[in-house]
Give the backbone structure.
Amino acid sequence: MQTHTSTTAARPGDQPVVEALDLCIDYRIGKEWLNAINGVTLKIDPLEIHGLVGESGSGKSTLALAMMNYMASNARISSGQVNLDGVDLVPKPATEMRHIWGRDISLVPQDALASLNPAYTIRDQIGEVMQQHMGYSQAEAYAHAVEMLTRVRIADPEQVARNYPHELSGGMQQRVMIAMALSTQPRLLVLDEPTTALDVTTQAVILDLFRDLIHDNRAAALYVSHDLGTVAQLCDRVTVLYAGEIMESAPVHDLYAKPLHPYTAGLLNSLPRKQQGTNTRLYTIRGVAPSLQERPPACVFADRCPVVLDKCRAEKPPLEATPDGRKVRCWRWQEIARDELDLLPEPERIPEVTQKARHEVLEAAHVSKAFGNADLLDRLLGRAQPPLQAVDNVSMRIQSRWTLGLVGESGSGKTTLARTIVALIKADSGELELYDEPIALDLTQRPQEVLREIQMVFQNPNDALNPYQSIGQTLRRTITQLSKERLSELALIQRVEDLLLAVRLPADYADRYPTEISGGEKQRVAIARAFAANPSLVVADEPTSSLDVSVQAVILNLLKDLRAREGSSYLLISHDLDVVAYLADEIAVMYLGEIVEIGSSDAVYNAPSHPYTEALISAIPEPDPTARDVTIRLQGDVPSARNLPQGCRFHTRCPRKIGAICEQEAPPLRDAGDGHLIRCHIPIDELIELQQQPPQATLDDEKLITPEDGD
Amino acid sequence: MTTTNKVDVGPDAPRPFPLRALRTILSILRQLAERPLSLIGSLMVLVFVLTAIFAPVIAPFDFDQIATGPRSAPPSADNLFGTDRLGRDVFSRVVWGAREIILLPGIATAISVLLGATLGMIAGYMGGWVDEVISRLFDSLLAIPAMVLALVMLATIGPSAAGIVIVIVLLYTPIITRVIRSATLTVRSLGYVEAARLRGESTLYIIVREILPGILPPLVVEAALRFSYAIFLTASLGFLGLGVQPPSPDWGRMVGEARNNYFQAPWTMLYPALAISILVIGVNLLADGLRRIFRYEGQL
């Protein structure tokens, strides 16, 4: 095993750290073997961060684990090689791989908490890797673990080393995983969606850390993600995977500047961007990705391609190398390279929302909700914890034919606020008014006329529909429950058909069951259900966060169309500022149960902003590798809502904190004009001036975060 | 690939409801048949059920007919499992006994499932003080050891078929309630239940139409498991003499009575004991198979 030789020395020449050669992987489904990865050749050079992009089902995780010669129990490598420093791993049995995993190849998984053993301290777990692979004694391993924790910029590493995983926040757990992965100075680091479960501000910090550490460690890395933004921010080269085949592979700048494959172009075009006018449709890729059983024999993308030829359905295009060192699998890449094909049609405009006089649909005044979660015994024994103040005295109003976007990190209370409005959660106090009439905070007290007007689209399409009822049954029941008048059988059938057509589904879907349709289609049915009785307000809670990029564009377009057609208003909750900016007329930013800024989308996106909004926007990973010079990084985690900070709630993390006043006094709500409100001690004029230049505090790269920030 | 359980419902469209349910049942049976252990379990249960139904045809003698042959005679062509001290045919008694050992626990399990599912869904869906009352009440019932409760109950109301049913219902309803309550809590927070609340459905509608189908998998598995325990409990009570009173052929009582005579006539004890074991194992294998099909990993 020559992999024993020094792993830190830079290697001369062109020898890649790891390469897959013509790799094919099959899965056993039932009794047959189905091909999942088909003839993939991929190599990663020393110091390279290689991005692997694909939608769900593309095989990207399978391929990433295969690069470690790790297979699910029902998968097999049917042909091909995986070479680590020139040695083929595929024939090696697991007993031999065990010496390579963790030493030469490390994995940083998506879910850090599930990957850490809850029964051992952090230093035990990091130390174990080094004791196992590097022959360290326990004392040496502990010392080294602390050193590793320092390198992933954890303040007070001595303390964290003695902690158990559940005592750390999500961001800290992910840092620990990185420390563990790097502790043996591996040749290859496999990062499988390592930031997907994290908030955008934490994600930005972790991505910075990856970039620095991977280069310091002289390792190579494979970064797997569905998020074109983070890939643009982190990677040097990008490979786009679709239906188990490489569509395109290129240096990151080339790929984003000029995609050569229609699929890559489609993915990039379907991303919502804030520059886009709010009355244009997003580009969408038609159809859905094929399942393992139904992959086309020739070009796998042919059925969804906007520039498909007869040849594409007859013959599989080869993965061709272009003169400038890119690879692309398309018969027409030369035409695309010469700009002879129009891959991005002029965006369709959506009919303007008619500018009739607006009136107020919903007003919320001083809404508060705290979660006690102390059970009877705890209450009797007087050991109940202080309540968790999820929403604290929030007021807002929503106009007719208007979209209010609600953004914030997890724990900001945005979902709780939305759920108190639809009354799935009963607010503790406050008033709600619908068309200037007060409505009950308790769902069971709301009459049918109120229920009809406020409907909801849920986050997870997979549990939004009752799997035991056909789509037609679900829609019919909703219509009959909520309609003003009793509909005849014929009118009912007609209405179901109309609703399905409005969400661009064929009418015969009424007879289908939810298990028989895709996630995107389920979300469309869920939207149809919300619109069943022409509601005034539709609350959409992260309606696209569990969907692929190409499906997300379809849903966002649909929401836009329906707003124009039905004249409804939306309350849109999302952690994705780009999604919100694309749909919303007005944005409210929440932090720890409070709205810290509210204003029109443009106003919120541009200066002056609340320092928190500024940091949120700054943390969005732009799908553009040229925009990497980001200035603001929020350190630490959101404090616990059981124990709110005194004064301004944001002062513990604020990069623009001005002094003691922030810690002692609650900031005023300042008016920046046109209903644009900012809750901050800094006067508007000064904010504008400050935000022309980057803040001082965060320029300090060595700023450490403290573990007490976790909740 | 978003199917939540392995119950295979084919992709082809329109199907009226009963046909769909039938297909689901057929699919479950097919999947049971695919796993050898589940198949064996199902066949074992099937044999006993058929035996119980066709007892008059299968049994050569009546269960209380004495002097069918010599007393305490070993198995022979006339008396397949031998005879007991009164000369009764052990085979005929085991065959007739299948009726009681399946029927009593069966009825008791059915009542427990019905009660437990209803109360569990109500506690889980309504929450609040309703949940507190139901849960605390059943917690205190569960705190009493099962056998002690059974003995005290039967000693009070006197051993009888109805007594056994009441004891089993009292013992198993809290357990089923607890399982169904936790399953309901999961289903309750799903989008489709919240959507039903948002369109103003009544509590009854939501429980019956939205929640019940979702908790059927754990309910079916739990019912099968409880059934096997109920058989065992019935047999145990019979063994202690608190089961169905003579002359009914109760397997547990048969084992208990033959115990003293074991070395002289082991068959009088062996065959009813074997029957109990085989039936309980069969039902357990079946329950295990169902759990695998539904991928239900709840606590037992």
